[in-house]
Amino acid sequence: MKIGVVTFPGSLDDVDAQRAVRLGGNEAVALWHGEHDLKGVDAVVLPGGFSYGDYLRCGAISRFSPVMAEVVEAAQRGMPVLGICNGFQILCESHLLPGALIRNDHRKFVCRDQRLRIERTDTPWTSAYSAGQEITVVLKNGEGGYVADEATLDRLEGEGQVVARYVEHNPNGSLRDIAGVSNERGNVVGLMPHPEHSVESLTGSGTDGLGFFTSLVEAVLA
Amino acid sequence: MPRVVVDVMPKPEILDPQGKAVLGALPRLGFTGVSDVRQGKRFELEVEGEVTDDVLAEVSRVAETLLSNPVIENFTVRVEESVEVRA
User: Fold this and answer.
1) pLDDT tens for residues A16-36?
2) Structurally, what CATH architecture does the domain formed by B3-86 represent?
3) Residue A101 burial (CB < 10 Å; 0-12/13-18/19+)?
4) Which of A28, A164, B2, B13 is the most exposed place for a label (fewest CB within 10 A)?
5) What is the ipTM for the molecules in this complex?
6) For chain B, what are the domain ranges?
7) A contacts of B23 (beta carbons < 8 Å)
8) According to its UniProt record, which residues of this chain constitute the active site (chain A) (predicted)?
9) Domains and CATH numbers, chain A
């Protein structure tokens, strides 16, 4: 499948995300924030970083970039979209995902290997995992605290929209240990940790993150 | 030129780690008697012409669309007398 990876001014992890897409058996297509063009891709990854310098709020400016108009429209039609870290923040600002991400409760930037439990596996990004499977991937964020009002949190839990949860240690004060959520349909997934950094044993904390990039292939072959 | 001020504050129920950091610094600096600090943002918008209800409604839409995230923040809009007028 052709998976587009958007580069915004200030994106950091777009090249790693492209590499992870290729290692996952897909074709990576570079997309540019300033173009109204998804180049015929089947899915989109919004990578981590500090798009537009995190000015105003993380993701607040990126949300209105030309490419995001296309991403929002495609997502509403059902195209798979994965937002990682800053990408997750952009998806929340775009109202494609509920809730918001605020500064870590301990106020420090955190960078660690993080244990997660995959809770929803019927999304195009997590179908390679089994429900309840625990994985370890890289986590690095300054504003990764997931918040939403109680009613929204209850709804997310009730509808099975919590995709991944922190286990053993909550690194940023996220409510109910939420590390990732999806929209109702499941095609849009936001995740604060970085699976794209955990796809090769040489440079990462193992290869547990690869499933996020092989799931699409498996979904097609299944 | 008239100035419209938009104040954006984190909602009361949302944790404000920056405000907490400021609060924590106060006693270390010898300032006592402050029991809570919330940190927000202030935007000053210079507008052309008279500030009519339509202009204020437009600024409210700006605040709602871009300046604040309604999931975690509240905002207020008010007109501030310009410096030139006061002088």
Assistant:
1) 999 999 999 999 999 999 999
2) 2-Layer Sandwich (3.30)
3) buried
4) B13
5) 0.87
6) 3-86
7) none
8) 85, 194, 196
9) 2-221 (3.40.50.880)
